[in-house]
Amino acid sequence: MIVIAGGVQAEVRIDMTMPGKPEPAAAQGGGEISPWEKEAYGEGGRFGSMTSIPSGDPMKDRITVSFTGCAYHAAKYLAEKGHEVAFVSVVGEDPLGLAALADLEKSGVDISGVVTISELGEDPDEKATPAGDDSPETAAKKDPGEVREVAAQTIPGNLKGSLTSVRVVARNFLGDVEFWRVDERILKEITPRRLASAEEKFAGADMVFADGNLPGEAIGWIGEFCREKGLPLYFDPSSPEGSARGADMLEYFRGIMPGRREAEAMSGLGILSTDQLMEAGRHFTEQGVGRVIITMKGGGLYYKEGLEEGVLRPQRVLRFAETGGAGDVVTAELLHGFARGIPMEEAAQAAMDAAAEYLADVVDERRY
Which of 20, 155, 245, 325 could lock 216 by a disulfide, CB 3.0 to 4.6 Å apart? Predict the structure, then answer.
C-alpha cells in the first residue's frame, strides 16, 4: 500500500473576456443611466457589449472549479494505475471538502485516514485557550457560580465560507493573471496528533509520500515514523515554503522531487546549467537522499541515484506556455515507477513521457 499525505485545495479559475467600452444610451434602446455609469462613462454613456462573447449570452466569463495539490494528484493517479492508496489529510466539512473526498473515493483511494473538521482549531488537545476567551466554559472555570451568556453572531444567509483550502485565480483575455488569492489556513490543522490517528495506515504502507504543503511538525512526525519503521519516504516540496521546510529534514527522505527553483531553495545553490544540476545532486546525496529528481519546467529533468545520473530533455521545449500541473504528473509517475521497482533511468523516462502527454495540447505562444 502507498500512503499519500498532503493538502487538498480547490482552485477557482476565472478566464475573463475582453472588457466592453462605453456606448451611447440610445444605441442600447435608451433607458435610465445609473449613477455609477455616469461616473464611469460620462453623461449619456453606458457599458457596452463589445466583448468576445455575443451580447445576451449569460456566459460572459468562463469559470472553472477543480481540485489540486501534489498529494491529491498523486493519490488519484496511483489509484487509477491500480495501486492500493490511502490518503491522509485534513479537509473542511464543507461542500468543497466533501466533493474532493468523493472525487478521491471515486478513483479508488482509501479516504478513511482523512479528518474532516467543521471549524478551525477545534482539536482540544493541541490548542491553548486564547487570551480573552469569553466562552461559557471558560467563564465557568473562572467563577463556577456565574456563567455569562454569550450572544451567538451569525452572518446573514449563514454564509460562513469554506474551511477547505481555496485558491482563486483571475486571468484576463490575454491569459495573464490579474489577481489571485489563497486561503490555506486549514493546512495548519494537519497536526502530528491528527496524523497519528491514521497510524495504522502508515504502519501498513510499503511506501509513503508527503508534499511540502504539510506543516513542518507534520513532516517531522512522518519522517520520524518512517525512519523508525524502515519505510521509504518520498517528498515533493510543492512550493518555496515547502522547500524551506524540507531543507531541514533531508535525512528523512528516500527521494525528493523538487523543481529547479525549489531545489535551489533546498540546497542554497544556483542551478542554471547541467554542471550545477549535478552539483545539487551531489549535495542532496551527501545529506542522505538516495534518489534525486529535479524538474526544469518545460525543459526536462535531472535524475540521480548513486553513481547513476543524467539529464533528460523533452522533444518539445515550451518557452512561453503555462506548464502548471506537469510537475505533479512527473511526481505521480515517478512514484508509480518506484512502487513497481523499475530502475531509476526507466522511471525518469516514463515520467518525462507522461508529462509530455499531459502538455501535448498546450499552445506555446507569447501572450504579451
Answer: 245
